[in-house]
Hints:
Layout: H1 3-38, H2 45-59, E1 62-70, E2 77-83, H3 87-91, E3 94-95, H4 100-108, E4 112-114, E5 138-146, E6 149-158, H5 163-179, H6 181-189, H7 191-194, H8 209-221, E7 228-231, H9 238-247, E8 256-260, H10 266-274, E9 275-276, E10 288-289, H11 291-294, E11 299-303, H12 310-322, E12 324-325, E13 334-335, E14 339-344, H13 348-354, H14 359-365, E15 368-371, H15 382-396, E16 403-404, H16 406-414, H17 420-435, E17 440-441, H18 448-452, E18 453-457, E19 465-469, H19 473-491, H20 496-503, H21 507-517
Parallel strand pairs: 7-14, 7-15, 8-11, 11-14, 16-17
Antiparallel strand pairs: 1-2, 1-6, 2-3, 4-5, 5-6, 9-10, 12-13, 18-19
Helix pairs in contact: 1-2, 1-5, 2-6, 12-14, 15-17, 19-20, 20-21
Amino acid sequence: MTSRAMRNSGSKSGSSVSRGTAESFENQVRLLSALAELVTTSAPLDATLHTALGLMARYLHMMRGAVTLISPSSGEIRIEAAYGLKPAEARRGRYALGEGITGRVIETGRPMFVSQVSREPRFLNRTRSRNLGKEDVSFICVPILLQNQVVGAISVDRLLADEATLAEEMRLLAIIATLLSHVALETQGHMDDAETQTSRPRGFVGNCEAIRLVYEQIAIVAPSTSTVLLHGESGTGKELAARAIHAASECANGPFVSVNCAALPENLIESELFGYERGAFTGATAMRKGRFELAEGGTLFLDEIGELSLLTQAKLLRVLQECAFERLGGSATIRVNTRFITATNRDLEAMVAAGTFRRDLFYRLNVFPILLPPLRCRQEDILPLAHHFAVRFSQRNGRGSVRLSLAVMEMLQRYAWPGNIRELENVMERAVLLVGRAGLILPRHLPPAVHGDRLFATQAADAAVTRQRSGSLQEQIEELERAAIVEALEASRGHVGKAAERLGLTERIVALRMKKYGISYKTFREELRGQGGAPQNDH
Length: 539
């Protein structure tokens, strides 16, 4: 190519770039002008936010977008308007403060972006709107600020771009967030009104589809007087569900009496439930009311109902049918007005077939069954629950803020949790005590059992999962090696040299291992978090 031809080619190329830049600038001006006009109209608040996202999709390289706001009453962060998301996907977009990129942006008030989400191990894809095996995108999130107070955030999926482009678009999104701040604030004021009928019961954490079904069932049955049978594995929150039903019922002002049928010896269970008269047996020196009487006007919760003997089951059936019983050693019939909720971790239908549980009692208890899903079927709720427990125990023990490291988050999500939420709660309490005031929970703060199991979740409708042990010895060694490198990088805030020194290796070997496992030091740099580092998972 002659020098003249090269000059002509360069001129054409520069002209093309100039035209592209000018066109991009014109689109930005048109977008901001349209948004400025939109916020001055009297359109409904939710329609305004949806229209704004539609305009952004029209003038920007946006594939999906969302406006997330903080609930004034619960402090929960959730998607209030979305573009490119199905309704079910948008409903899954819920976060705790500090959780995920969105939660972190809202907590710190600082914008962030991820250049390539498929290479970001902490990107959870909570809405499950992306197939990261087939598509890859960049993600930008900026806070919505009003008078230095964070109201929510705007997040955008776009085609892959370099960091300079993402930084430029992040600045544009910050301007858009300012334009929409008053609309967002007004929308925030109506958030709780919109979810009054499907609000999360007090004490519950999580928003996966399986647990949202439980919320809906609690809301349906609570105002009635129907008997409820809660079934599920141990540690899934059956008593919490019973208390939620009681709190939302007409007998909420009455007592809530809980009885663990498995914890009472056979020779004491009847006296505990029905009470006894003076002289009914040796040691009965005074009359004592049973749990049925103590629950008068309230709710009686019988946990582990499958542990009752057939004789006690027969007596319980009469109380449920007639709301009447006699104390041990007495002849006077006592009538009670009590709401009955029972729970079990056993298969009562199988027990009925085996003759160890009365068929008539089973049908009397199984009026409104509610299944509490095991934690392994609530994959997307594991980190919110862990964060919730970490905050609770750090506050209870007078510690500062506590956060989960990348390696810990990966381990928590892989583990099968045979003890369910109760086990997770105990694990986090232990971790908070061990971490001290350092503030960062690392793999060494978790018990050995959590290090050893793997969990492989499926995308089936029932969120079923299978549990497997680590495969070959080499796979287990590589897993431990990767976790050790991640822990060292987090402790050194991304400084490879210090991480190598901590591990007792050369910097070159650590760099090779990082390349092998797809680990980037930038992920752990505090100073880069506002420019693309993603501290946790997101939708």
